[in-house]
Automatic annotation (TrEMBL):
Pfam entry (one): Methyltransf_11
Organism domain of life: Bacteria
Name of the molecule in the record: Methyltransferase domain-containing protein
Gene3D superfamilies: Vaccinia Virus protein VP39 (3.40.50.150)
Record keyword Methyltransferase present: yes
InterPro entries: Methyltransf_11, SAM-dependent_MTases_sf
Domain Methyltransferase type: 35-125
Organism field: Akkermansia massiliensis
Record GO biological process: methylation
Presence of keyword Transferase: yes
GO molecular function: methyltransferase activity
PANTHER family (UniProt xref): TRANS-ACONITATE 2-METHYLTRANSFERASE (PTHR43861:SF1), TRANS-ACONITATE 2-METHYLTRANSFERASE-RELATED (PTHR43861)
Coiled-coil ranges from the UniProt annotation: none
Keywords for this protein: Methyltransferase, Transferase
Amino acid sequence: MDWNADLYENKHDFVAEYGRDLLSNVPENPGQAILDLGCGTGTLTHALLEKSTSVVGLDASPEMIGKARQLYPGMDFRVLDACLMPWNNWFDVIFSNAAFHWIPDHGALLKAVSRALKPQGKLICEFGAHRNILRIREAFRPSLERMNLPYKTRFYFPTVEEYRSMLEQAGLRPEVVMDFDRPTPLKDGPYGLRNWARQFFWADLKCLHEKRRVRIFEEMEKALRDELWDGTQWVADYRRIRVIASKQAEGPHRGKGARTCRIR
Ligand code: BEZ
């Protein structure tokens, strides 16, 4: 995925603003080690300094990390694929806002999260739930297909039941797994939806001439006007899944009654 870090920072800063509510679940403890997974331009990584002095921001996008380093010099930001994190028993908290739905393989992701957490460490995250941006996706798909372009689902938006089971398989004990609607106003009045699509559907749009992109935006706007335009702004049909889970002390994949070997 190519990211336009400036467009993200200027027009989609609401992503981090909504994440502030999730931050209130992170305990304050100056000694704890926190990882912000999928940190984008670093707004919440910086805010996490209120919770601890030891905070690392990680993102797979060099553009995003470049912007984060520029905005918050001196903080520890890394360009890394979350599934390939090298840490073992290292973090007390892994925090993530609006990032997990970009990662296709949650088996690999949650294994890496479980490995990187200390025993009893917590995963605190929020991302797109089942049926997230469904109306937007349903309007985008036929516009692309009319141009003979295939629509590829790039996102993972799980149900609560599915995600509980994924967490347990990775050795993470679900404490909170809930989903909810979060209608999200988009900046820039009439241009809000097309700016949003330009940022987040860019992988599908980048091969098109600007004239064809604009045609897609106009078709989407026409299809969605009745449902998502409130008279002054576009309101995206976001749904969230919020997760708090802790790493089981004895680690993943150990069945009931498993024995530990004592060295005498
Ligand atoms: C979101 O739910 O945050 C989201 C999902 C897909 C594209 C952009 C944003």
